[in-house]
């Protein structure tokens, strides 16, 4: 597999003009674009249309978390945008997760399209053990992620968002079919930023990640396309 197709570029901008610029720049160089809360709130589903019209896969990262009925309705709306994959918070519970999966299946059948993948968010990469303790979770981030990974698999989720340091442990507890998506990726030549649990592309791929979410190392680079190429080379290196 071309390593570039494993790269999800984080389209973390605030308006459609910037989104269009990045789509033009990186079209054909990355496999996915991630549309998050900032951009989706600013411009709505038109940005998903932009990505799909350019034959790029769209990862709609809204981290849905609400009562089951509300999440089911939101998932159906997201399916209609054409998104290929979307996130929900696993802490919403089994009923919410099941409702999301069922809604995605039902709406996809109505539209005659493939069902988008429903991916669970476990522990945000910005959170440390101290942060978890503050909100009443005594487990370490790795322990809590491992627990949520098994929970996600038991609920029928298609994948999990997790940090690279948790990949090996998770793979030992769940099926190889569970898609693992890893944010907090920082190439050896880039700044750490505000992510606390990070890894290089090489380390993440070696540990078993399927897809890597990468933003600032590409967007802040003098030549973003060259940065993508360097990241892909790093992913392939021994």
Layout of strands and helices, then pairs:
Layout: E1 7-10, H1 16-26, E2 32-35, H2 37-43, H3 46-53, E3 57-64, H4 68-81, E4 85-89, H5 94-111, E5 117-121, H6 129-134, H7 141-155, E6 159-161, H8 167-171, E7 179-182, H9 201-207, E8 211-214, H10 216-219, H11 224-236
Parallel strand pairs: 1-2, 1-8, 2-3, 3-4, 4-5, 5-6, 6-7, 7-8
Give your account of this protein's structure:
The protein has 238 residues and is of the alpha/beta class. It has one domain (3-120, 183-236): TIM Barrel, CATH 3.20.20. 45% of the residues lie in helices and 16% in strands. It has an eight-stranded parallel β-barrel, surrounded by six helices. Strand 3 (57-64), helix 4 and strand 4 form a beta-alpha-beta unit. Helix 4 packs parallel to helix 5 (94-111) and helix 9 (201-207) crosses helix 11. The model has no long low-confidence stretch (mean pLDDT 91).
CA(first)-CA(last) distance = 16 Å
- What is the H-and-E element order? EHEHHEHEHEHHEHEHEHH
Alpha-beta classification = alpha/beta
Give the rounded overall mean pLDDT. Answer: 91
Number of helices: 11
Q: Please outline the major beta sheet.
A: 8 strands, parallel, barrel
Classify the fold: give the CATH topology.
Answer: TIM Barrel
Report helical residue fraction: 40-55%
Q: Going across the major beta sheet, what is the strand order?
A: 1-2-3-4-5-6-7-8
Shape category: globular
Work out the number of β strands: 8
Radius of gyration: 17 Å
Strand content: 15-25%
Q: Return the domain count.
A: 1
């Amino acid at each position: 597999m071309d390593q570039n197709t494993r790269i999800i570029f984080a389209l973390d901008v605030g308006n459609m003009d910037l989104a269009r610029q990045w789509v033009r720049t990186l079209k054909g160089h990355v496999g996915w674009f991630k549309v998050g809360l900032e951009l989706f709130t600013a411009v709505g589903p038109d940005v998903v249309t932009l990505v799909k019209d350019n034959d790029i896969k769209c990862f709609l990262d809204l981290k849905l978390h609400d009562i089951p009925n509300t999440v089911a309705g939101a998932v159906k709306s997201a399916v209609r945008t054409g998104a290929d994959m979307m996130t929900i918070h696993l802490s919403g519970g089994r009923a919410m997760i099941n409702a999301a999966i069922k809604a995605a299946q039902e709406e996809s059948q109505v539209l005659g399209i493939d069902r988008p993948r429903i991916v669970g968010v476990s522990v945000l990469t910005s959170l440390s053990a101290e942060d978890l303790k503050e909100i009443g979770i005594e487990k370490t981030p790795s322990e809590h992620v491992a627990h949520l990974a098994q929970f996600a698999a038991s609920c029928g989720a298609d994948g999990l968002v997790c940090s690279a340091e948790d990949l090996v442990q998770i793979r030992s507890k769940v099926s190889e079919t569970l898609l693992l998506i890893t944010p907090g990726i920082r190439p050896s030549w880039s700044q750490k930023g505000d992510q606390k649990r990070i890894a290089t592309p090489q380390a993440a791929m070696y540990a078993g990640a399927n897809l890597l979410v990468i933003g600032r190392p590409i967007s802040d680079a003098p030549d973003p396309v060259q940065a993508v190429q360097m990241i892909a080379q790093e992913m392939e290196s021994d």
